[in-house]
Amino acid sequence: MSTAFTTRTLRITTGTHETVTDLTADCDAFLREAAPERDGLLNVFVPHATAGIAILETGAASDHDLLAALRTLLPPDDRWHHRHGTPGHGRDHVLPALVPPHATLPVLDGRLALGTWQSVCLVDTNVDNPRREVRLSFLG
Hints:
This protein is an alpha+beta fold. 23% of the residues lie in helices and 35% in strands. The protein contains 3 helices and 8 strands; from the N terminus they run ββαββααββββ. A 5-stranded antiparallel sheet has the order 1-8-3-5-6, with helices on one face. It has a 3-stranded antiparallel sheet with strand order 2-7-4, sandwiched between helices. A hairpin with a 2-residue loop joins strand 5 (102-108) and strand 6 (111-112). The longest helix has 12 residues, at 62-73. It starts with a strand and ends with a strand.
């Protein structure tokens, strides 16, 4: 197996409420194993049609602000043409157009090169699917 490309799948339980889940520690742990003292890129990808990956500050209520903004932009009501699942579920299928299902981040010396307050987060507004996979891939 080449050490230039390494991947791992995380299994995340998001529950039955809209959520922003901080994945930064998971990314750091993966890089400690996959890329010690190496430079490259970390790709974070969620292979679901109703979730996304965001880089934002957590711990200061920005995650709650993001969910509130998404509820304003994508109200969970009956306006959506996509109509299976919980009422308003159609908005969950629009979410990845605003919060993409991926992020590619620089890795320097085996560590994420994030800003001081930045975290890697899974954004999930779909209360019908509490189990998610997130693929971490290092290229370097």
